[in-house]
Amino acid sequence: MSNLIKVNNDNDVAIITIDNPPVNALGPGVAEGIWAAIDEINRDPAVKAAIVIGAGRTFVAGADIKEFGKMTSGGPRRSLLPLLLHIEDSAKPVVMAIHGQAFGGGLELAMAGHYRVASPAAQVGQPEVNLGIIPGAAGTQRLPRLIGVAKAVEMCAGGKPVSAREAAALGLIDRLIDGDLRAGAVAFAREVASKPAPRARERTEKLGTAAENAAILTSARAVASKKQRGLKAPLAAIDAVEAATKLPFEEGCQVEAKLFTECLFSDQSKALIHVFFGEREVAKIPDIPKETPVLPVNRAAVVGSGTMGGGIAMVFANAGIPVLLKDVDEAALDLGMSKIRKNYANSVQRGRFTQTFVDERLQLITPVLNYNAFSEVDMVVEAVFEGMTLKKTVFADLDRACRKGAILASNTSTLSIDEIASATSRPEAVIGTHFFSPANVMRLLEIVRGKKSSKEVIATCMQLSKKLGKIGVLVGNCRGFVGNRMFGPYRREAQFLVEEGAGVEAVDQALVEFGNAMGPLATGDLAGLDVGWRIRKEYRHLEKPGIRQPFAEDRLCEMGRYGQKTVRGWYCYDENRRPSPDPELPAMVRNWSAEAGIPQRKISAEEIVDRCIYALVNEGARILEEGYALRAVDIDIIYLNGYGFPAYRGGPMWHADTVGLQKVYERVCEFHQQHGELWAPAPLLKRLAEAGKTFAEFDKEQVAAA
Ligand code: 3HC
Ligand code: NAI
């Protein structure tokens, strides 16, 4: 028997325990162990029934995702299907006892049991689509038989888990067990020991009629095409569930297996698996070990109740952390609090939060006009106007007001954390926490490491990001940090393209078709074109003479066209902020370009994408080499969570690897020749391309060297 599976008897009930930390993934040895355990219970005359339970924090988080990479690079193919049939065919009833999660292969395993019981806090789901695959162990076949086609399609194509309570209502869980799950499951097994064991694969009563299913499947395909635009797996999952409605179980499994394999070998799946591990990798900081002590953050404060400060206060409150919210006067504070209330009210209206939840959260936010109570807080996030003099004044005030040991964080998007820290007597406590707008929605948190930020402060912010529902990525202190520094060249190219003759909508459309949530010009209108305009004016003295700079947005701003907030920018906006093309804009831009001597030409969608995306990649490579991002994957995670880059392309650096760095490098060289110095290839890109390597290999080498 594999040591990952243990069998103990509680009198006439066998307890099969899966013990494969950390999450009992069905990796090598686990399936074999369960197979042997099923044989053993069937051989043992003293055993009347069995339970299968997970050791540690969860039941089973699914197939071992690490194995997929081995399979797609020529390793042996492993299928759980034979094991699941073996369990279902067991002569003695098998009860699956679920706590934590039964996800993916974990839920498929559970559905092969004759019964399922669960702790009320457990979750079950088929999240495979998030990895670009579909359930591959009959999940698409057993689930509709147990809960009906509509919900099965929703779970397999949407990938969202459901609570044990909902699963019980759906008929997927036979009993919820309060208290000791193991004891409850054993008692349940004893109750059913002498009954004929039901097999999910033999059930058909919930499979619905052809007409009902046609409507469900059509609507599911429409939802998937809209909500998971560009992603192939959800449509494949729907096809597989459809097979369950039309074919006998075994044939349905064959359809599922074929679709699963197609998905598994796709670039989308490789990218999404990269994202899965990447999201966990970014938490690992080479010089900050896991054991680094973290500081408690039980009370927080935010300075500035504007767009960002209000959102950040909500983030703390949503995580249950009481927060002071300071502004300069009653009027500013009232405005800030009213926006927070409005924001929460919208969430209630959309069904995201209950009124009770919102009332509790609002109780946690205390508006204040001075620093008196700041001596009590563990962490402050400053979010006042962007300006060094003001930030330094605020940090000097915080230095006086806050107790020793409190973390002093700035939400600045462009200013040096080191210079801000110099206004305090404790630069080790100062750090950047760069939230993205809207702070209460966007998942990304760039954590900016100052020269003197202490390891404890960094470790605390990294850990806190998880508690706040964010994904924290540690970045270095350079202008724009990682995300915005790369966004500069990306948006610069979008403007250049328009100045060279591409249509505004054509530029945005090409990047939306590439998979981005929004086009670069529409994004500018959303954020406000004046933000970049002001920054450019401030830094103009740093621009090297003779280097082409975009001018179109400056001209738009000079005309008062700041984007959505002024109803005009790249587009015109109606009262509901719906954009429409501005018929006057093309001629206007053509005139400006003529004045600047920029020849007009026809520009393909391919060039639009290459110019914008490779501008990101080239700058990303510089950032990586300069050490402002720890790994290429960190850049990917930043772009996926802060900038609407399509997850199924894995992030800009992974996308470049997928295209092939040689090809990317050649294209960058071409642009360099055509457009000059701004396109000088990053030395790291050149080196990797010439060596036939990838950014992912660069990451591995860095990790090995650390
Ligand atoms: N395979 C391999 N490793 C896994 C894993 C899996 N299925 N699930 C989690 N892990 C690893 C993580 O990489 C992480 O490793 P690390 O500590 O070295 O970084 C560790 O387990 C802990 O994971 P988390 O940090 O995510 O822990 P949480 O407690 O925050 O979350 C979880 C636990 C909710 C189970 C979450 O890990 C999760 O959602 N896992 C993936 C679930 C999933 O996608 N399952 C489907 C797999 S595909 C499949 O089953 C195909 C089948 O149809 C054939
Ligand atoms: P904002 O203009 O909406 O709000 C700033 C608030 O700070 C105002 O309410 C103002 O009254 C208040 N304030 C000014 N001086 C103060 C003081 N001494 N004490 C207390 N409050 C004071 O600005 P926004 O957009 O929220 O930006 C705040 C910070 O966040 C800036 O550093 C900005 O660069 C950064 N940021 C902004 C993003 C955005 O999309 N708006 C995104 C990420 C970062």
Low-confidence stretches: none
Kindly report the spatial arrangement of strands forming the biggest sheet.
Answer: 12-11-10-13-14-15-16-17
Distance between the termini: 38 Å
Q: Given the structure, what is the number of helices? A: 30
Shape: globular
Q: How much is the average pLDDT? A: 96
Helix-strand category: alpha/beta
Helix content: 40-55%
- Say which molecules are bound, naming each kind only once: 3-hydroxybutanoyl-coenzyme A, 1,4-dihydronicotinamide adenine dinucleotide
Got a strand count? Answer: 19
Which sheet architecture does the biggest sheet show? 8 strands, mixed
Cα gyration radius (Å): 28 Å
- Give the percentage of residues in beta strands: 5-15%
Describe this protein's structure.
The chain has 706 residues and is of the alpha/beta class. 50% of the residues lie in helices and 11% in strands. The protein contains 30 helices and 19 strands. It has an eight-stranded mixed sheet, with helices on both faces. A six-stranded mixed sheet has the order 1-2-3-4-6-9, with helices on both faces. It has a three-stranded mixed sheet with strand order 5-7-8. Helix 5 packs across helix 10 and helix 6 runs parallel beside helix 9. The longest helix is centred in the last third of the chain and has 22 residues. The protein is globular and about 90 Å long. The chain starts with a strand and ends with a helix. 49% of the residues are buried. Bound molecules: 3-hydroxybutanoyl-coenzyme A (3HC) and 1,4-dihydronicotinamide adenine dinucleotide (NAI). 1,4-dihydronicotinamide adenine dinucleotide (NAI) binds next to helix 13, helix 14 and helix 16.
